[in-house]
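Re: the 336-residue chain
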Amino acid sequence: MGEKPSSEPSSAPTRTIFITLAAGVISAIATIGAAYLGGFFDVAKTNAASVGTINLERLKFSNELVKSALAASNSANSLLFYADIGLLDGLNLDKVKDYAQRERDRIKSGGNGNSLLPSFDRTARPKLWVDRDFMTAVAPHAPAGYINAFVSIGNYLLQGFGIDENPKRLSMFLAQILAESGGFVVLVENGNYSKERLLQVWPRFFDEQKAEQYAHNPAKIFNLVYANKMGNGPEESGDGYKYRGRGILQFVGRTNYERFSKETGIDLVNNPDLMTDPNVSLLIAASYWYNSGLNALADGDRLEDITRKITGGALGLQERKEWTDRIAKLLAEKYP
C-alpha cells in the first residue's frame, strides 16, 4: 500500500516475536485475550495496562485461561484468581477484575439480573474461526509462518477487531491482504528494477544516463523516488529504502511506520523489518482495517470504497472482487 508500483516477490524471514507494550498506547495486542470478554472491551479504547515484554504465545495462554474461567461453575472467582496470581499477562487486568468483582457481587446479592460475563459457548466457538485447511485453500503458496499466524494468534485478532463478525467482513479483509501481498508471497517491496523498467515506471525521475546508474540498486532507487514524501527525509537520509513497502498490506513511508508504532506499541520506526513478521503484519493489517472503518464498508458491500481506502484508487479492483468471491464461496462451503 502506498505510492509504489507492484514489484517482484521477495520472501521474508519468520521468527518468534517479542513485543514491548507501552503504557497508555492504544494496543491491539492487549485486546487479543480481552476479546473473550467481548462486548465489554472496545479495541479502540482498551489500553495496555503495564509496560513489559510480552510473547504472543503467552497471550494465547492467558486467553485459554480466560476461556477456562468462563466455563467454570464460578467464573467470576476463577477470573479473579487467575488475575491475582499473575497468569493473565497482556490483559487490562483492572477491567478484568472490575467485571469479575461486579459479577461476584451480583451472585452474592441473590443473582438477580443478567450476568455481566459472556457465555463460554459464545466466546469459545466463534462461527468463522479459520483453520489450517481453510487458509491453505485460500493461499496455497503462502509461507508456513503466515498460515501458522492466521490459525493461532490470527483468530484472536480477527475476533478482537470484529473482522470475523460475518462472512462479508472476513471475505473482503482476506481479499485485500491477499491481493496486496500476492497471496502472502510479496512481503517486501523488491526494487530490483532494470534500466528499461525504471524509465517506464518513473520517467520523471530517470533519464537514460540516470537509469543506467541506478538500475538493479534497490536502496538507491527507493531513496530517490520516495524522498521527501510520506514523512521521509531527503534522498541522503536513506528513509526511502528503510521505509519501503513491507508486510501483507505493503505500507510505505515513515509516516505509516510511525502510525502503526503508536497503534500497536511495536517500535517499527527503529525496527522496520518487524513489519514482515507474520504475527505483527497481521496485527497491523487488522488494526488498520478496524481504525479505518472498513468493517462498516464491508457490511455495506462497498468493495470499491475499501479498495480506494487501501490503495488510494481503484487499483486491481477486478482482482480484489475475484478474491472476495472466491473466499466467500469457500466460507459458505465451510460454514453453511
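The longest strand covers residues 18-21.
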